[in-house]
């Protein structure tokens, strides 16, 4: 199984970084962008000034505005925001060839349906072989070739190994897993928890509180992943714990920076104003909350973040409510 060309749907920061990775891995890459200014910027200056300024793209990366142009590619990396994944895949479906695998690289739970991205792909392009790419990685660092490791989840071991070797590039190391659900849940929930960590940082609650949010948040993530049919060991890997630690530990994370602004006293509207890319945790929090209720999973930190973002509570009330919860064993 050999892949020579890659199509990347979505030219945000992460999509552009993955285009760089694929090019460095030796693939000819076609990056699809919705924004005319991105197409012009890449064609004229070899830089995505809107979403990944300062990174000169490899010569193997070309850009298009037309999804149909990706129909000839050997592998597709789907990187639109999670809430636009369905409409994007529906638009691409007429151009997809049955045998071409689609690697889902966006993290989140679809609002309304409460579906994971693999469910969305199954419903829009059911014949497509599936894989999930997730793990601790900041787009700017990956694009510049700094070392990073991610999970590549694929139920088909032969396909998974082929994709792993295909996407392996200097500084970019995929680790193969078979558990797509665990990989997806980790990637979706960590964004919500990062908002909580940012909020704690903004309020000056200290490193002990920060560590507690990460650890208890990881317990919430694991409970949901297992309840949905994923494996705890997958969530404990790069796509869960690894991504959680990274996203909760640096203002480079859009989600943590949103929480930081809230902790410093800004309203949700003020914190989001002027942002070109909306934090996925903001979009996914209501869906994670509903999913937890549907699955009967206790996720107090994620629920508190959802309430805060919807205006149902305040930062100080969230802190008081979490600290006044009944004491219990650590496994509960």
Sequence-ordered SSE layout with sheet pairings:
Layout: E1 5-9, H1 13-24, E2 28-32, H2 36-45, E3 47-48, E4 52-56, E5 61-64, E6 75-78, H3 85-92, E7 102-104, H4 117-124, E8 130-134, H5 139-143, E9 148-153, H6 157-167, E10 172-177, H7 180-202, H8 207-227, H9 232-235, H10 238-247, H11 254-263, H12 268-272, H13 280-295, H14 300-309, H15 315-323
Parallel strand pairs: 1-2, 1-6, 2-5, 6-7, 7-8, 9-10
Antiparallel strand pairs: 3-4, 8-9
Helix pairs in contact: 3-4, 7-8, 7-10, 7-11, 7-13, 7-14, 8-10, 13-14, 14-15
Mind explaining what this structure looks like?
The protein is 49% helix and 14% strand. It contains 15 helices and 10 strands. The strands form 2 sheets. An 8-stranded mixed β-sheet has the order 5-2-1-6-7-8-9-10, sandwiched between helices. A two-stranded antiparallel ribbon has the order 3-4. The longest helix is centred in the middle third of the chain and has 23 residues, at 180-202.
């Amino acid at each position: 199984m050999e892949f020579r060309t890659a199509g990347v749907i979505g030219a945000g920061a992460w999509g552009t970084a993955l285009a760089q990775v694929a090019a460095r891995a030796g693939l000819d890459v076609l990056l699809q962008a919705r924004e005319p200014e991105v197409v012009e910027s890449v064609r004229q200056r070899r830089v995505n000034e809107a979403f990944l300024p300062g990174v000169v793209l490899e010569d193997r990366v070309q850009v298009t505005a037309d999804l149909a142009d990706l129909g000839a590619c050997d592998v597709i990396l789907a990187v639109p925001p999670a809430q636009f994944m369905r409409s994007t895949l529906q638009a691409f479906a007429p151009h997809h060839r049955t045998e071409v695998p689609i690697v889902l690289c966006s993290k989140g739970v679809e609002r309304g349906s409460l579906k994971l991205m693999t469910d969305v792909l199954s419903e829009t392009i059911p014949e497509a072989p599936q894989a999930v790419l997730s793990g601790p990685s900041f787009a700017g660092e990956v694009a510049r070739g700094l070392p990073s490791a991610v999970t590549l989840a694929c139920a088909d071991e032969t396909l998974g190994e082929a994709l792993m070797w295909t996407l392996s590039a200097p500084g970019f190391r995929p680790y193969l897993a078979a558990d797509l659900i665990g990989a997806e849940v980790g990637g979706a929930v960590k964004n919500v928890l990062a908002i909580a960590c940012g909020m704690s940082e903004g309020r000056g609650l200290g490193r002990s509180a920060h560590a507690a949010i990460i650890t208890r948040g990881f317990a919430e993530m694991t409970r949901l992943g297992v309840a949905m049919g994923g494996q705890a060991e997958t969530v404990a890997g790069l796509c869960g714990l690894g991504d959680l630690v990274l996203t909760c530990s640096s203002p480079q994370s859009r989600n943590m920076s949103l929480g930081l602004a809230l902790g410093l006293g800004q309203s949700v509207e003020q914190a989001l104003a002027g942002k070109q890319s909306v934090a996925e945790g903001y979009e996914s929090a209501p869906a994670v909350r509903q999913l937890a209720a549907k699955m009967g999973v206790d996720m107090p930190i994620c629920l508190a973040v959802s309430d805060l973002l919807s205006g149902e509570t305040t930062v100080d009330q969230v802190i008081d409510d979490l600290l006044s919860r009944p004491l219990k064993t650590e496994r509960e």
